[in-house]
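Much of the work behind modern protein science is quiet bookkeeping, done one molecule at a time. The fold becomes a row of whole numbers, each drawn from a learned catalogue of backbone shapes. The protein below has been through that process, and both of its lines are reproduced in full.
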Amino acid sequence: MSSPCARVRRVGLFGGTHGNELSGVLLVRHWQQDGAEIQRAGVEVKPFLTNPRAVERCTRYIDCDLNRVFDPESLGRPVVEDIPYEVRRAQEINHIFGPKGSDDAYDLIFDLHNTTSNMGGTIILENSRDDFTIQMVHYIK
């Protein structure tokens, strides 16, 4: 978003970035079947299963960690036959929800994960100096 006061128009809800973290997978599948509870007036909310092959196998990833390949080098790699699955998937996700950093990109992405650590509910932010982000965290909390 360009400023803390910019209007949120589109939000992505990701589950299954790591195929063995099933909380986000179950929520995304639920919302894909019935999205009434996530819809808000004036905001497009899109639930999205990010790594379906890893989810199908109930494994963290197929070739490499999907969270680690949203960098410019991976997103700009040519699509060839032997490109790692998650790199190709990151390119597809970037095309659907981006391109990253553009005016057409989704305003917010919530990437749902779970852990066996005793952390309670945890929110990890890309930017904690943005007034909008801080207010959003307080709202969620």
User: Anything to note?
Assistant: The radius of gyration is 16 Å. The chain has one domain: 10-140. Strands lie at 10-15, 44-49, 108-112. Residues 26 and 44 are 20 Å apart (CA to CA).
